[in-house]
Amino acid sequence: MIALFSTVSASAQVAFGIKGGLNLTTLNVEDPELSYESRTGYHAGIFLRGKFGNIGLQPELLLFTQNGDLESSLFGTAQESFTYLSIPLMLKFYPIGGLNIQAGPQFGFLLDGERKYDTFFGSGSEDITDYYKKSDISVSVGGGYDFNFGLSLDVRYNIGVKDINNVSNGEEARSRIFLLSVGWNFLK
Fold it and tell me: Which residues neighbour 169 within 8 Å (Cβ) at sequence distance 6 or greater?
């Protein structure tokens, strides 16, 4: 077992680094009285990558902010902000050099949620963490380029596959996130 692990480790190209970037988030909510518009958020964290020939496996640990503007014909407007701890597990295929196509699951854990509102009844803010489920599962697809000198660029689209609405009799809600990332490999 140790010999097999040593052989696999010796043949793999290993990378460890930091990454961060911007996200545009939307919630796909099935409510005709509600519109949800994207706002820019960010993500930052660490990654570990093992590359075996033209296949790579890259787990990540990211802190995510997801933001959006709500508009309801009945209640007025609100801005929602969420903080998630996310764990993407990306499988990368490298057809040419550092160019890669990537796909994999992303597991998100809700840390915080806040709604700032301006309605017909007044303005204020409230904690909405309990209105949403504590975890989210998404499928991530995208592409990128890992440069030989350590820089990496990624573009991804995350499609929520789990209803995250935690309100009884509430409309189904699934996250959609477009990400642009820049990373740096410390092991180059």
Answer: none
Give the other-Cβ count within 10 Å of 5's Cβ: 9
CB 29: neighbour CB atoms within 10 A?
18
Domain that holds residue 43: 16-185
pTM (global) more than 0.90: no
Mean pLDDT for each 10-residue chunk of the chain (188 residues)?
Answer: 46 93 79 67 96 97 87 77 94 97 96 86 84 90 97 96 76 84 94
Q: What percentage of the chain's residues is helix, strand, coil (to nearest 5)?
A: 5, 75, 20
Say how far apart CA 66 and CA 174 lie, in whole Å: 12
Question: What is the C-alpha radius of gyration for the chain, rounded to an integer number of angstroms?
Answer: 19
* Residue 5, in any domain of the structure: no
State residue 4 phi and psi, 5-degree precision: -65, -45
Alpha-carbon distance 164 to 175, whole Å?
8
Q: How many domains does the chain have?
A: 1
Phi-psi label, residue 146: left if phi above 0, alpha if psi -120 to 50, beta otherwise: beta
Q: What is the CATH number of the domain that holds 64?
A: 2.40.160.20
Is 146 inside a domain boundary? yes
